Amino acid sequence: MLEIAQESKQGVLLNATGSWTIDQVAGIWKSLASHLEGNVAIDAAGIEKMDSAGLQVLLMAKKQCSDAGYACRIMNHSLPVLKIMDLAGLLGSLKDQVRVSSQEKASLELTYSRNRYSIFGS
To answer: Domain total for the chain?
Structure first.
């Protein structure tokens, strides 16, 4: 699910929560698409579950914004988001900063994106 956390002339900050899986992505995309005509930041800290369909929604948002000359940033990645991005090998190539606590860093066990991204501790 998505909620507007903040709006300004620079863009919109959206809080993403819940399950971003195949069952929910149609509704999530419908809600997200209306915000892609400007700069968008998606706070992914509240995403509890994500599959490849949820990842596809994030990728489509980034592409649509980029094609229109806007920025789409993903921030505060939850562990499920980090894990699906790692599995897809996209963690470093999306160029979004990844911030995790030192306790979470040890438990991540990222495999595919290892050494292709930077993690900033919190």
So the answer is: 1
Q: Is 38 exposed, middle or buried (0-12, 13-18, 19+ CB in 10 A)?
A: middle
Q: What is the CATH number of the domain that holds 53?
A: 3.30.750.24
pLDDT digits (tens, 9 = 90+) for 74-100: 999 999 999 999 889 888 788 888 877
pLDDT at 9 over 70: yes
Entry pTM? 0.89
Tokens of 15: 């809080």
Tell me if 1 sits within 8 A of 31, measured CB to CB: yes
Q: Contact 23/53 with Cβ under 8 angstroms?
A: no
